[in-house]
Write a structure and sequence with these properties.
Layout: E1 2-15, E2 26-41, H1 48-60, H2 70-73, E3 77-81, H3 103-119, E4 124-126, E5 133-148
Parallel strand pairs: 2-3, 3-4
Antiparallel strand pairs: 1-2, 1-5
Length: about 150
């Protein structure tokens, strides 16, 4: 699993409206104030154990103000699936997505990361798997970290 973690002063995710009203966007997840926005990518070899490992790392990673973790200050997390984290653009001009797990593999594992975070006591907001999403955030720092488990 691969995660891009950003320390934020607020973040939200919206999805496009219904086919009847494609212009209407709906907010599906939002955190206000200090927290962490996490983009999660899943590859073919990932497991529920790796999802639990990533959740523990996200909950205890000391990247907030004063070198605190989300667990120490009860900061919220916004977790969003992002298959493009496994895009490969080394050759040509068009990325390939061969390393990204298909939706039927990836979705349950992203859900497992969220479930494990909640079991640890985290307040977690999410995007909507497979949807056309718009993510807005205020990166505090800027501070961005890449983690692989």
């Amino acid at each position: 699993m691969r995660a891009v973690i950003q320390r934020v002063d607020g973040a939200s995710v919206t999805v496009a409206g219904s086919p009847d009203d494609p212009s209407g966007a709906t907010a599906v997840g939002e955190i206000v104030g200090e927290g962490v926005c996490v983009l999660v990518g899943v590859t073919h070899e990932d497991t529920a154990e790796k999802a639990a490992q990533l959740a523990r790392k996200l909950w205890t990673l000391r990247i907030l103000e004063g070198e605190k973790s989300c667990s120490e200050v009860n900061a919220p997390l916004l977790v969003i699936s992002q298959f493009t984290l496994y895009g490969d653009a080394r050759k040509g001009r068009r990325p390939t997505w061969n390393a990204a797990a298909p939706g039927e593999v990836a979705e349950p594992l992203v859900d497992e990361v969220v479930a494990c975070l909640r079991a640890l006591g985290a307040r977690v907001e999410t995007g909507r798997f497979g949807a056309e999403m718009r993510v807005s955030l205020t990166n505090h720092g800027p501070f961005t970290v890449l983690i692989e488990v």
